[in-house]
């Protein structure tokens, strides 16, 4: 398993030497055939599941930026997702804006909301921040649940699907191309951010706030930036979710259970590990969907899994695999050196 | 809405009675925070468990109300100690502070809260259950406002509990040890205090307080599975408003949250009632994170 992954990564590395976008393009082209494959082997329902996986990948990657890179504990992320979804849905429904206009506007609104959620982080840390963000996230859900204009108990129905010219993207496999593109671009940009000076500033803040500020990093600015970037991801995911067929939104989609699922994705994959987050998102979404029959036991299982993960495997799947790869590379390098000297 | 002094007074009185309950839950959160340096996210669920245990003890086993309350407190304390011993102990051992280990603590508490809520749901179902108790006293009449006996009793019992806790912490030897552990664990350990045991004790004490709050709230509102989550946020708001680690602060913070919430529900919009506590929380966090009575914590380098 590990040797397969190391071979795989070395192939990708050699491809990336040709051009750094080449592996991404190849992955994109391969993924274009995924809906056909899924429909042929499992059935059309599973394409919808793949769509939801892509949305949660976007959310998990965004949450990883603020939580894993920057080390700010936020548990109100699902509130931002809700804001993105409801804004885009209302703009499309009440003002007749096309998806291509309502989604950017929704992302803009979510950015502002992210700024508001991030503001407490300037003064607070740790558990205080967690509860402040939890309060904000839950306020958003309660606002949606009690305000009739935002859908309240009936939810928002008949949200128009995105269109290109006369063509309406309303089937599951055509929508997949949209969400998959968004997810790939999202993952790519999260790597770009991680490897840029911004990403290094985030990591410096995560490791030690005081040392980071002494090194000349504008700590409040970068904390807010992390929140705003993650809000862009959440807003995009929300807008895509709102317009996804069958075009229906309800505040039950944004409860604390969903937040726990989202947290579980990030924790399972390993906090601060991008590919781990992606794998976690796929695994948890599929398990969540396949165990729908045991709906009443789901929160118990997810909650207990999260507790055990934190206690026994704090670095998650991604962390364990990464460690194994690093160890293997180290051993190989060491053996080569030994051969060279003897 | 026309302004009316009588109804304003009524709202304030009801705000104070529910606020005292927020105060005792906040006190538990504050105790755990000072003892373990964590915010216990599953505290709301302990409160909910306490309410259900009280309901079972008094309705199904026929134990009188005061006995049911004490029984629920003891059972919830045992539950809390179990959770602390089995799960949190490992995490506190592997590192405190607000680094990734601190984040793990928060995520762990979050998962625990959902799991406990689900357990309660599987045992007792999703319906709101009434908790009828006959107190045998007449409603108190002040001018035209009639205060139901459950509200009166809640306020009195909460204040008594706080008084007992205050006495315990200030004037007994065990209370002194608890305060020493909360102040500095290393020095307390060197002074011959069994620190892990006292951390468990603090946890049990806090959980018992939460259970008492649950049993007190039961007769006022109905008992249901989802009651814990909002309570946690409101109690946390109370603890923050009053300042962490301050006993009178938790009480006053709770009362302020209760009044603020009731007045908002009465004069702004009743359906947004649950949001006002968060607004107060965020406002206080932004302006004065140490709370009204807390000490401004210095950042450790």
- Identify low-pLDDT runs of chain A: none
User: Mean pLDDT score of chain A, rounded?
Assistant: 84
> What helical percentage do the residues of chain A reach?
over 70%
Structural class of chain B: mainly alpha
Number of helices of chain A: 15
Strand fraction of chain A? under 5%
Largest sheet of chain A: 2 strands, antiparallel
| Shape verdict of chain A | globular
As a whole number of angstroms, the C-alpha radius of gyration of chain A is 21 Å
Number of beta strands of chain B? 2
Q: What spatial form of chain B do the alpha-carbon principal axes imply?
A: globular
Could you give the order of the helices and strands of chain A?
HHHHHHHEEHHHHHHHH
Strand content of chain B: under 5%
Helical run tally of chain B: 11
Helix content bin of chain B: over 70%
Structural class of chain A: mainly alpha
Distance from N terminus to C terminus of chain A (CA atoms, Å) equals: 31 Å
Largest interface (C-beta under 8 Å):
A-B, 46 and 49 residues
The biggest beta sheet of chain B is recorded as: 2 strands, antiparallel
What is the arithmetic mean of pLDDT of chain B?
80
Write a structural description.
The complex is a heterodimer of chains A (342) and B (301). In chain A, 77% of the residues lie in helices and 1% in strands. Chain A has helices spanning 2-18, 22-32, 34-41, 45-69, 77-94, 99-123, 126-146, 172-195, 197-207, 209-214, 219-243, 256-269, 274-290, 298-312, 316-341, and strands at 163-164, 167-168. Chain A has a two-stranded antiparallel ribbon with strand order 1-2. In chain A, a hairpin with a 2-residue loop joins strand 1 and strand 2 (167-168). Chain A starts with a helix and ends with a helix. With 301 residues, chain B is an all-alpha fold. Chain B has helices spanning 5-36, 43-60, 65-93, 100-124, 149-171, 173-183, 185-190, 195-217, 227-242, 247-267, 273-287; strands at 140-142, 145-147. In chain B, strands 1-2 form a two-stranded antiparallel ribbon. In chain B, helix 2 (43-60) runs antiparallel to helix 3 (65-93) and helix 2 (43-60) runs parallel beside helix 4 (100-124). Chain B starts with a helix and ends in a 14-residue tail after the last helix.
């Amino acid at each position: 398993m590990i040797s397969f992954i190391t071979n795989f990564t070395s192939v990708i590395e050699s491809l990336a030497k040709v051009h750094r976008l080449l592996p991404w393009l190849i992955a994109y082209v391969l993924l274009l055939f995924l809906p056909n494959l899924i429909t042929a082997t499992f059935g059309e329902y599973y394409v919808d599941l793949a769509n939801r996986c892509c949305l949660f990948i976007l959310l998990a990657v965004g949450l990883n930026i603020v939580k894993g890179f920057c080390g700010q504990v936020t548990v109100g992320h699902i509130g931002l997702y809700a804001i993105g979804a409801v804004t885009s849905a209302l703009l499309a429904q009440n003002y007749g804006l096309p998806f291509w206009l309502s989604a950017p506007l929704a992302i803009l609104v979510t950015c502002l909301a992210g700024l508001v959620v991030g503001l407490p982080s300037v003064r607070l840390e740790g558990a205080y921040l967690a509860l402040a963000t939890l309060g904000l996230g839950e306020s958003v859900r309660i606002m949606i649940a009690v305000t009739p204009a935002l859908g309240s108990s009936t939810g928002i129905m008949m949200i128009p699907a995105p269109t290109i010219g006369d063509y309406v993207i309303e089937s599951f496999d055509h929508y997949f191309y949209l969400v998959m593109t968004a997810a790939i671009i999202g993952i790519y940009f999260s790597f770009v951010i991680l490897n840029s000076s911004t990403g290094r500033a985030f990591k410096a803040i995560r490791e030690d706030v005081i040392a980071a500020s002494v090194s000349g990093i504008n700590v409040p600015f970068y904390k807010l930036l992390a929140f705003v970037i993650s809000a862009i991801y959440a807003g995009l995911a929300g807008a895509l979710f709102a317009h996804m067929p069958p075009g229906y939104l309800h505040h039950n989609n944004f409860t604390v259970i969903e937040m726990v699922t989202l947290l579980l994705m990030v924790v399972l994959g390993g906090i601060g590990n991008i590919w781990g987050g992606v794998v976690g998102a796929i695994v948890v979404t599929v398990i969540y969907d396949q165990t729908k029959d045991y709906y009443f036991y789901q929160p118990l299982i997810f909650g207990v899994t999260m507790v055990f993960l934190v206690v026994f495997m704090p670095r998650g799947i991604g962390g364990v695999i990464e460690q194994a790869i690093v160890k293997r590379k180290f051993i190989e390098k060491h053996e080569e050196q030994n051969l060279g000297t003897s | 809405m026309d302004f009316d002094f009588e109804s304003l007074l009524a709202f304030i009185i009801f705000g104070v009675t529910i606020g005292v309950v927020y105060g005792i839950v906040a006190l538990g959160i504050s105790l755990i925070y000072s003892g373990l340096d964590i915010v216990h996210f599953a505290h709301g669920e302990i409160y909910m468990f306490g309410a259900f245990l009280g309901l079972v003890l008094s309705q199904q086993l026929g134990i009188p109300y005061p006995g049911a309350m004490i029984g629920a407190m003891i059972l919830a304390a045992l539950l809390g100690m179990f959770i602390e011993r089995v799960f949190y102990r490992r995490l506190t051992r592997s590192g405190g502070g607000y680094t990734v280990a601190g984040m793990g603590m928060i995520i762990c508490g979050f998962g625990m809260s959902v799991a406990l809520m689900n357990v309660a749901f599987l045992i007792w179902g999703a319906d709101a259950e009434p908790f009828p108790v006959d107190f045998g006293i007449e409603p108190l009449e002040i001018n035209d406002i009639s205060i139901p006996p459950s509200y009166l009793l809640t306020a009195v019992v909460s204040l008594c509990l706080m008084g007992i806790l205050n006495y315990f912490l200030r004037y007994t030897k065990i209370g002194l040890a608890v305060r020493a552990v909360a102040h500095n664990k290393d020095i307390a350990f060197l002074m011959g205090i069994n620190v892990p045991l006292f951390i468990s004790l603090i946890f049990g004490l806090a959980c018992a307080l939460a259970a008492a709050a649950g049993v007190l709230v039961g007769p006022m509102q109905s008992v249901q599975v989802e009651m814990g989550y909002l309570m946690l946020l409101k109690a946390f708001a109370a603890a923050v408003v009053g300042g962490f680690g301050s006993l009178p602060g938790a009480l006053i913070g709770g009362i302020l949250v209760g009044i603020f919430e009731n007045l908002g529900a009465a004069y702004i919009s009743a359906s947004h009632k649950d949001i006002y506590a968060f607004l107060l929380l965020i406002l206080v966090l932004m302006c004065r994170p140490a709370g009204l009575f807390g000490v401004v914590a210095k950042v450790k380098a």
